[in-house]
Amino acid sequence: MGKRTFKKCEHYIGKLKKEGRLIAAQPLVRQGIIISGSDGVWQETPLNETHEVQVGYYHILANDLKEAIALAKENPEFEYATTARIEVRPIKMGEEVPKFVYPKKV
């Protein structure tokens, strides 16, 4: 990532902070393990970097999915890499059964 793109990313993060929308943002190391299985029978598989790789995340506050999508479209990563993709997903706040509410603080 060039210096200019890095500055744009800093500006984007600063804007989200100033607006009170940013809870967390962090780049991810491109190494890791995928764990699967259960009941003591586990598989540990290295991440396969030849497939799509998550390089970071933003945990933001938005009023709805439409607003979150609009905020994601402002991310300068799209200028840096023509193949950049951002997955926008709401965080589950609770369960219908058994009426469990997840903690609000991260």
Question: What's this, in brief?
Answer:
The chain has helices at 3-18, 65-73, 77-80, and strands at residues 22-27, 33-38, 41-46, 56-60. With 106 residues, the protein is α+β, with helices and mostly antiparallel strands.
Features:
106 residues, 3 helices, flat
What does this protein look like?
With 106 residues, this protein is of the alpha+beta class. The chain has 3 helices and 4 strands, in the order H-E-E-E-E-H-H. The protein has helices spanning 3-18, 65-73, 77-80; strands at 22-27, 33-38, 41-46, 56-60. The chain has a two-stranded antiparallel sheet. Strands 2-3 form a two-stranded antiparallel sheet. The two termini are 29 Å apart.
Total number of strands: 4
Q: Which value, in Å, is the CA radius of gyration?
A: 17 Å
How many H/I helices? 3
The rough form would be described as flat
Distance between the termini: 29 Å
Describe the largest sheet: 2 strands, antiparallel
> What is the H/E order?
HEEEEHH
The fraction of residues in strands falls at 15-25%
Percent range for helical residues? 25-40%
Strand line-up in the sheet with most strands: 1-4
Overall mean confidence score, pLDDT:
86
Structural class: alpha+beta
What's the assembly state of these chains? single chain
Contiguous runs where pLDDT drops below 50 for at least 5 residues: none
